[in-house]
Specification:
The chain has helices at about 15-25, 55-65, 85-90, 105-110, 125-135, 140-155, 170-185, 190-200, and strands at about 5-10, 30-35, 35-40, 55, 70-75, 80-85, 95-100, 115-120, 165. It has one domain (about 5-200): 3-Layer(aba) Sandwich (Rossmann fold), CATH 3.40.50.300. The radius of gyration is 18 Å and the shape is globular. With about 200 residues, it is of the alpha/beta class.
């Protein structure tokens, strides 16, 4: 059985990463969405174990000490991390694992998984980005401005990614991501052994 692809989606808060991840997983049984661990408080409607694993700082630090996280970072005053065991197990079982993580975390994952597919999700405009954050109604005015300022800084890292997708229309953005995944699976360097076996069979 071939290993699955590690697909990393990140970008500014409000770009719509969460929506894209959920829609992708609904469209294929071969996708597995990695659930992050975080020390931040749950937002309204979020469910522990589904949206995030909500833990306190002591629990999080214990996971770091025990090397149970593939990556972790402090973002907006809270800690976030990706459980190592779940990701590696799903990849070995042939599933494509989608990580929705911040840029700091994505760059750490890239060091350990350079063969991963790294996709930067962009809003159609910075004005629309601010509108989306405001409409969520979960942040104070100070937090909104902090996230908006951070979004400008995060755009500087786009060159570290393999692809960029503008999320102006969810369905179109999903089609682009699906096309990227298909193209990546057809890359010669991901299928060398298979192509060599075909060549040997023809001799």
């Amino acid at each position: 059985m071939e290993n699955g692809l590690l697909i990393v989606l990140s970008g500014p808060s409000g770009a719509g990463k969460g929506t894209l991840c959920r829609e992708l997983c609904e469209k294929s049984d071969n996708y597995r969405l990695s659930v992050s661990v975080t020390t931040r408080k749950p937002r309204k409607g979020e469910v522990n174990g589904k949206n995030y694993f909500f833990v306190d700082e002591d629990q999080f630090n214990k996971m770091v000490e025990d090397d149970e996280l593939l990556e972790w970072a402090k973002v907006y005053g809270n800690y976030y991390g990706t459980p190592r065991d779940y990701v590696e197990r799903c990849l070995k079982e042939g599933y494509d694992v989608i990580l929705e993580i911040d840029i700091q975390g994505a760059l750490k994952v890239k060091e350990k998984f350079p063969e991963g597919v790294f996709i930067f999700i962009l809003p159609p405009s910075m004005e629309e980005l601010k509108n989306r954050i405001v409409k969520r109604g979960t942040e104070s005015e100070e937090e909104i401005m902090k996230r908006f300022k951070s979004a400008y800084e995060e755009l500087n890292y786009i060159s570290k990614y393999d692809y960029a997708v503008i999320n102006d229309d969810v369905e179109q953005a999903i089609k682009k991501i699906q096309a990227i995944i298909i193209a990546e699976k057809c890359k010669v360097n991901r299928n060398k052994e298979y192509y060599l076996s075909i060549r040997e069979g023809l001799l």
